[in-house]
């Protein structure tokens, strides 16, 4: 028996013994998972599952042991993922700490920053949020206006961040600030880590057209951030940001993959317009429209699969993430729109009597989906990236 | 039959535009969303004093006798401001039902509608009837009605209800005293009033037989298109202004050719929608194939308004997605208007049938 | 009886007496009409009808009598048009002489040029073609390269024109040439009239993907054109060109209006896929697609009607011609494409056995229609015009 | 089941690309359009020497035993060059018909097909059958066939015909000596061979019963998608190059954002088409729901290829409309490919049926 087989057997046994039964049920939203941090009270079984995994290094399986990670090699990590999947286990811990700032710190952070933050991320003690966007800088991130002025061993930060997911539930924020107002757009930017409990930080949740949202505005008034919290070098924040942006785009495309969506739409259509003598959705025009969507969806899913196969075969990733972001979000919009059309008059409910919960959810999902092609880099930006970086079309 | 406004109609449009600018802000519209009846009785009275509810109706019935095109220009301006006052329910639906229905009831009700003294709602939709007008399970028998209607526009505030019900010869319309039914305010995405109406053997007077409801819905569909035209025009205008002022990468975003071409496409669609809407109102005034003209316009405007609203948000970026920003109000209204009286697919199918396809 | 009534009665009687019976039949293509000129032999009845009209000034009813026109006022010309329409008469003479260069000469030409050309245009002696486009200057007309160099009392012209309709059948060409290579693009251009029989002019017809076409390439090698043939002033040709361009755009949109098209498509669809029990086109998805086209077409037709009503009511034309060109050509493309889809496998014929004449025509019409959004100003140019001149969107 | 090419397949693709570059210019393709058989027998023999016709077939039947994905890479490259040699008729249609048909006939014919010694055409279409495979009026009885087939791809040059005809149990396939039928060359827009085939009581041998034809068409549909993918890729590449070199208003037209975004959309569509095509071939090799995979791919590629070809012409401007320019060849091929084996609407409906919609 190879080491890997031994690891698989041990891991399987450990998972069977330690994962609470409730953690084996599929989840509908990520709100049911553990994002860590001090501000949210999680159910006992969620915490028990997380803490068991923390102890074994399974919340960050490939990160170095010295920082609390699992220290697993790629092959072992794959085995762990397979065994988790086989037992349909929920991830024990998620969030921007594990997916974004943690990897960046491991790669670019000072030893002091790693020591301070990585173990806390692995344990889920600290929840992170991302302070990039500003009201005046949408797609043009490099034009951001939040200023940081040196004052002894600290920066004094003033400005406003927007679209910060879960800022109200996070303990720390990683953010971009302008440290050299005289430099060309991208050159005077610095990547900072900021404690959200610092004096001068105010958070206001944003309501969307679809209702409550995880997004917040964060106002920064004379917030003091130690110089030691710079990642990379002062005025060298843009390089940090770029690596993370690509990462975010892939994540967003992934969010829109839900295998049950097709079934839900089909079932709703059958319920709304009935079925014909052959058992088909009775309205042929509606049927064709749904089928056209599902065919495009299938082609997209196959493209994601092809990209994974290419990665397995050793191909280096290009700018597929832009394609995935663009197509994935547009497909989701088409799906949410069709769901509303299928529901017809029942789709008009915001709340209350006469409208079913599913109908209301479908309508709010449609409203929410309109933001998909804006957040995480607008579709227009993705098209710019594809035409310039992939197709090498000339600048004007 | 001309497709341009005459001078009087242009003056009326100016007046309505001024009215919206001074009396009906989007802040007001926003606040009314949680209101019991979803509109302002005071503003409705002002509109009545301006003679708007009576514009299309004959002078001998208290109207201005000016025809539907006059109402069109008012609806367009109110639509631009998303004003929720009950022109669709009381004037378009209620008014045309009385206009084409029983003469005695007509003489009784139309003058009061024209004067703004009476609010009417037409209760024709039931759970699961989708866009069909003849699938009512509500029944009229022995002078009373039993059944339940849903999403009755203007239902919470109406003084009188016109209810579709199976009666002798098919689905007819019946007039019911609104104070004698049970009404539950519903909450739709545009915040305007809609109600569930429960009729438990309420006394009812026959207004008209089969065919009347379809005719009423055609008139209301055409008027709704005028409102939609105004709203999509406003959403487009907001977007055009934004394209000219918002800068990214050091230039106004309206200088990006890809966005310019998209804006141009929206503008063209608006022009096509205007033609279809003008035409439908002209047919209504001149007499002609009203059903076909209504379906033509609604088939076109249903998707066009939605598309304008969606593109408006995309071109605004994140800010357009916030509850604080007004574009969301237009998007939600676009969806309600799309589905009201039948969506684009429904009206394409109907136009096809009426045109021999 | 008013003068107008008298004119109407006289005109009606004259038309009844003088129009050959064969000129009362509708025509399928403009090839059946008289374009004038020395190079095409027209049937006797076509010429008889033209000549009768020439004598009465009816080929150019509103042009001044001194140049051979009818000298009619607007009201009388309208009466003439109405009476012609009532008797379903074909136009006696058409072409770029009457529609383009004639009006321009009347407005901008020297007295000598008018005397020389207008009577010949009115009589149909001379057929005109338009030499604007060049291989290197597509949408960017102002970048044209055909050079005209002064040599005594003449210009020596060298260059190449493309997309010249009927150059092979025309006697004269009006063209744009570059007379000041040092000037900014639009400033160094002159508007010339050129006899096609001048030494150095070579014409080659262009075959399109749809087969034969009226388009030609015209090669100009040291062609001598008298200075007297300049319209407007030397280096002032751009203003002449602009007036004509707008005119051309409106004409093109009009070409695509054919009331029988809808019936043809419907009939073809019924033949191809059959009808259901209710007499409808049996394939509901195809039906919906056709109906969506016809609804858009109806909205477009109503928009043209609205524009005419506005003109009648005294509105000055704006940039509607760009909308009409854009939408009209795209609708025509959709229609031709749908016709081919309706025909299915029968649409694959280019020629010969197994394919009907109508099927072959439908397919070639589809191929030909792909050029509609290019010729006469591409759709992209129309969108630029709308966004800049109508919407006033900023330049970069 | 992987969706990427392995090293051998990549090498084969390179070889096929070189072959097209050196042996099959678009000038050659153009010249062959008026040819009696529409392709070059000499080039076909060269392809046979390279082993291409036998790629997917078992070694014991003279093939290379490498599977359909190997044929895919060849078809893609030949498609890019619009090479008209009869892979679709002889290998995809004829080859799969023998592969899945009567074992004796298979052993007789497949080795000859694999060696390039035999040309085969499958005659399944009749006047007015549109995309239906079971509406043949051709009949098989007493060992002979009577009927007329149209648009038989490769029909003019075929040595053997496989004819669909009503026989015992439904529509089956029958093998007929092609020299014993009357053939008339047809002229389609892509210039490739298609023929009317008249069978007046010609002797025929049963190859397989109901179901075989649909299976054969599925295989050919998948292979055709590979050819289409290559062709649309080539049309896109020509356009991309043109966008970079053609200048207007003093700059390359590829610097205009509106055109950039359209090019990006085409590129994305190409990527989606590649995935569907790869997947269908992988399913063919691995075994699986071939019919569904075929309809998925053809539903996607039919319209995508047309769209790429149409946009290619639009982005080229007038020059793309001329007979001299090569884009017209791609546009015409796009239309033929779209309709061959069923257009997008047909395959969406079929996919829907197979998927329970």
**Discrete helix count of chain A:** 11
User: Which runs of chain B of at least 5 residues are low in confidence (pLDDT < 50)?
Assistant: none
Strand order of the largest sheet of chain B: 1-4-5-8
Structural class of chain A: alpha+beta
User: Tell me about the biggest sheet of chain A?
Assistant: 4 strands, mixed
Oligomer: heterotetramer
- Radius of gyration of chain A, in Å, reads 23 Å
Describe the main β-sheet of chain B briefly: 4 strands, mixed
Spans of chain A of 5+ residues with little confidence (pLDDT < 50)? none
What gap, in angstroms, lies between the N and C termini of chain B? 26 Å
Distance between the termini of chain A: 62 Å
Can you count the helices of chain B? 11
The number of E-state strands of chain A comes to 9
Structural class of chain B: alpha+beta
A few lines on this structure:
The complex is a heterotetramer, with 2 copies of chain A (396 residues) and 2 copies of chain B (357 residues). Chain A is of the alpha+beta class and 396 residues long.
How would you describe this structure in keywords?
heterotetramer; A: 396 residues; alpha+beta; 4-stranded mixed sheet; 4-stranded antiparallel sheet; 11 helices; 14% strand; globular; B: 357 residues; 17% strand
Describe what this molecule looks like in 3D.
The complex is a heterotetramer, with two copies of chain A (396 residues) and two copies of chain B (357 residues). Chain A has 396 residues and is an alpha+beta fold. Chain A has eleven helices and nine strands. Chain A has a four-stranded mixed beta sheet with strand order 1-4-5-8. The radius of gyration of chain A is 23 Å and the shape is globular. The model of chain B has no long low-confidence stretch (mean pLDDT 97). In chain B, the strands form three sheets. Chain B has a four-stranded mixed beta sheet, with helices on one face. In chain B, strands 2-3-7-6 form a four-stranded antiparallel beta sheet, with no helix packed on it. Chain B has helices spanning 7-23, 26-32, 41-49, 68-80, 87-100, 103-114, 212-245, 257-286, 290-316, 327-339, 344-354, and strands at 120-123, 139-141, 144-153, 160-167, 170-177, 182-188, 193-203, 205-208, 247-248, 251-252. Chain B contains eleven helices and ten strands. The longest helix of chain B has 34 residues, at 212-245. Helices cover 52% and strands 17% of the residues of chain B. With 357 residues, chain B is an alpha+beta fold. In chain B, strand 2 (139-141) and strand 3 (144-153) form a beta hairpin. The two termini of chain B are 26 Å apart. The chains are: A alpha+beta (396), B alpha+beta (357). Chains in contact: A-B, A-C, A-D, B-C, B-D, C-D. The C-D interface holds C 133, 135, 137-140, 143, 162-163, 206-209, 211, 272-273, 283, 285-286, 340-341, 344-345, 347-355, 363, 366-367, 370-371, 373-375, 378-380, 383 and D 125, 127, 130-131, 150-151, 184, 186-191, 194, 196, 248-250, 256, 258-259, 310, 313-314, 317-324, 327-328, 331-332, 335-336, 339, 343, 345, 349. Strand 9 (349-351) of chain C pairs antiparallel with strand 6 (182-188) of chain D, so a sheet runs across the interface.
């Amino acid at each position: 028996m190879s080491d890997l087989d031994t690891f698989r057997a041990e891991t399987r046994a450990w998972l069977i013994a330690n994962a609470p039964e409730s953690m084996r049920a599929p989840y509908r939203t990520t709100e049911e998972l553990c994002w860590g941090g001090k501000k949210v009270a999680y159910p006992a079984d969620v915490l028990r599952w997380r803490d068991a995994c923390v102890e074994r290094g399974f919340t960050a399986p490939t990160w170095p042991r010295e920082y609390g990670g699992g220290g697993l090699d790629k092959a072992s990590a794959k085995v762990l993922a397979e065994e988790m999947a086989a037992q349909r286990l929920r991830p024990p811990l998620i969030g921007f700490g594990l997916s974004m700032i943690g990897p960046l710190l491991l790669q670019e952070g000072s030893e002091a920053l790693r020591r301070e933050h990585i173990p806390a991320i692995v344990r889920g003690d600290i929840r992170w949020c991302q302070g990039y966007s500003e009201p005046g800088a949408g797609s043009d991130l490099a034009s951001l206006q939040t200023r940081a002025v040196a004052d002894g061993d600290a920066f004094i930060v003033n400005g406003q961040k927007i679209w910060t997911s879960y800022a109200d539930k996070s303990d720390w924020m990683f953010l971009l600030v302008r440290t050299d107002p005289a430099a060309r757009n991208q050159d005077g930017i610095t990547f900072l880590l900021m404690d959200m409990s610092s004096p001068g930080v105010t958070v206001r949740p944003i309501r969307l057209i679809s209702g409550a949202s995880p997004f917040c505005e964060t106002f920064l008034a004379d917030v003091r951030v130690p110089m030691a919290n710079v990642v990379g070098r002062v005025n060298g924040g843009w390089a940090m940001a770029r690596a993370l942006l690509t990462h975010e785009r892939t994540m967003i495309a992934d969010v829109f993959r839900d295998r049950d969506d097709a079934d839900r739409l089909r079932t709703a259509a059958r319920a709304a317009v009935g079925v014909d003598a052959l058992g088909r959705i009775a309205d042929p025009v509606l049927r064709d429209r749904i089928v056209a969507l599902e065919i495009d969806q299938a082609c997209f899913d196959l493209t994601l699969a092809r990209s994974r196969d290419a990665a397995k075969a050793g191909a280096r990733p290009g700018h597929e993430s832009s394609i995935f972001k663009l197509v994935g979000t547009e497909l989701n919009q088409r799906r949410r729109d069709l769901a509303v059309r299928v529901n017809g008059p029942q789709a008009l409910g915001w709340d209350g009597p006469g409208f079913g919960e599913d109908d209301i959810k479908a309508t709010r999902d449609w409203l929410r989906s309109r933001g998909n092609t804006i957040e995480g880099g607008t579709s227009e930006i993705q098209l710019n990236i594809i035409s310039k970086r992939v197709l090498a079309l000339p600048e004007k | 039959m001309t497709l341009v406004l005459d001078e009087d109609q242009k003056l009326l449009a100016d007046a309505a535009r001024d009215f919206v600018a001074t009396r009906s802000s989007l802040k007001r519209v926003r606040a009314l969303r949680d209101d019991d009846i979803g509109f302002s009785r005071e503003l409705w009275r002002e509109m009545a004093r301006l003679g708007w509810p009576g514009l299309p109706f004959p002078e001998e019935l208290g109207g201005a006798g000016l025809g539907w095109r006059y109402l069109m220009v008012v609806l367009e301006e109110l639509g631009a401001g998303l004003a929720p006052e009950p022109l669709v329910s009381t004037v378009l639906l209620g008014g045309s039902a009385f206009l084409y229905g029983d003469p005695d009831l007509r003489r009784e009700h139309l003058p009061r509608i024209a004067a703004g003294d009476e609010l009417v709602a037409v209760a024709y939709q039931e759970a699961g009837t989708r866009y069909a007008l003849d699938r009512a399970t509500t029944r009229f028998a022995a002078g009373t009605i039993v059944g339940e209607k849903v999403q009755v526009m203007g239902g919470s505030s109406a003084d009188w209800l016109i209810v579709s019900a199976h009666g002798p010869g098919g689905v007819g319309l019946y007039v019911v005293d609104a104070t004698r039914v049970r009404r539950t305010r519903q909450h739709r995405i545009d915040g305007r009033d809609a109600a569930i109406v429960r009729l438990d053997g309420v006394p009812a007077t026959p207004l008209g037989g089969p065919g009347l409801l379809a005719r009423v819905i055609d008139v209301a569909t055409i008027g709704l298109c005028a409102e939609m035209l105004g709203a999509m025009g406003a959403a487009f205008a907001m977007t055009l202004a934004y394209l000219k002022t918002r800068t990214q990468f050091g230039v106004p975003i309206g200088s990006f050719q890809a966005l310019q071409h998209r804006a141009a496409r929206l503008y063209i669609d608006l022009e096509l929608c205007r033609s279809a809407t003008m035409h439908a109102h002209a047919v209504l005034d001149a007499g002609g194939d009203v059903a076909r003209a209504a379906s033509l316009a609604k088939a076109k405007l249903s998707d066009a308004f939605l598309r304008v609203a969606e593109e408006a948000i995309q071109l605004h970026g994140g800010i357009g997605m916030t509850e604080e920003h007004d574009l969301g109000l237009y998007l939600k209204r676009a969806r309600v208007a799309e589905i009201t009286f039948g969506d684009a697919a429904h009206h394409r199918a109907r136009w096809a049938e009426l045109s021999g396809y």
